[in-house]
């Protein structure tokens, strides 16, 4: 633990061989090491990457879902606390503060409840940070992972679904009798009675709690009372003077408030109001508007620009903005004085919006930009992989023990793991947009485009050739004479709906009869790691860092003979595999996440004891 590398500290804490050492650690040393297990290292890098990906798509790609990542982290830190307590050590304020910070990052209200109740039983008085972390974990409960992340907008339908919290995809924070706003008001009153003065984070949590239940008046009231911001007056053109705070004041706003305003107003279908408030705060307090705020505003504008149908169409269309509004917002953020560099998620949303508006030129422009960003990210992945390979000797099957114990190797594996997940996300974006490009619309029927009249004879064949690497193994598309369906021999399997390759999929140049170009191909990383895996000793393959390098690689080989002794490697406790393009992935299912959650609840109960009273307030 001397190196202070989070992965190595986690491994040491969970290693049974070090159990006695961990049990005898002085409290000051334990706290210092425990704080290294930070969600900023284990959780935050993956939250934004998974934001725009469905759990099913992630599982098809062979990667862990975000909720499983969350639950694994919660299980690990709960197991550490359980071991520490079983050795007779008390858990103090420093440990509880870090645990609540973890629950905040995970958006895990249940975990926060276990910790909060345990603090009361141990007579540990929460400080301001504890109250803020606890409130934030309730506000964002189950809002980052699963299908709940798609259901954050406040509508009559959403309000009724969240009222009970029993519907699939609508768990987490509640409304009506389970109102998260009511829960936070109780916590806030307890905090003030304990003598703690609120800060910006506290007021942001209260504003967000009102926004979650559609209490727009309460949300605006927080802004008026604390910062003298009147959103209604701003819409009328009156820009009053805001409350002046010294920069050292705990209520001096930061970009945290800007992000909260964008999310709270946007979830309540008022993007224009969010823009006015953000502009007013930014100018008065001299705060730069971060990329996260623009990303929130663009995403919410994309949602509000959708057309709604059915009996609830009128209610769902409240706050609807036009496609021109979305494009104006994008041009504003990317030009002077903001000069925001668009992210791949922004281009992905604009391409989807262009497809709905049947704007072929804008669609292709954003598709090409997504691919360019993918190429840039692949180069970063190649550099990160080279760094990892520098610690591995490809000519030897045995890895030097000091390499596996070095901080540099652990840091290189973590950096590579994050960038590889980013490549997976961006590759998925290109595949989805390519499928939309080919199969969703008959672009020839569109008007006001220069390609009109030659889509099926010229442009469609070129598109098939240019993006063939990203097309799924089974897909269909419309033609003048009907619908064409392409199926491979495994079209019944989920893998047929995505694209798997031995080489990196690329955008291929358009070739003609008098021009042919040999395009260089690069072997995919999973194939490279498979070569390392075949050469490594079983002992090295059991090391946690090595397992993480090979996790997406070992997929079940369906062609393996059941009588073959090598079909199941007992050292690895999992089936041996070939390479990624032989895979037969197991589809995502909510039952998997449910099983993971049950294991997490078991560990939480073992570490902090059972919660005997349901809901808040818990005994204090």
TrEMBL record:
Major localization listed first in the record, in broad terms:
mitochondrion
What is its subcellular localisation? Mitochondrion
Determine the domain of life of the protein's source: Eukaryota
Tell me the Pfam families matching this sequence. Answer: ATP13, PPR_3
Keyword terms of this UniProt record: Mitochondrion, Transit peptide
Transmembrane helix is among the record's keywords: no
Name this polypeptide is given: Mitochondrial ATPase expression-domain-containing protein
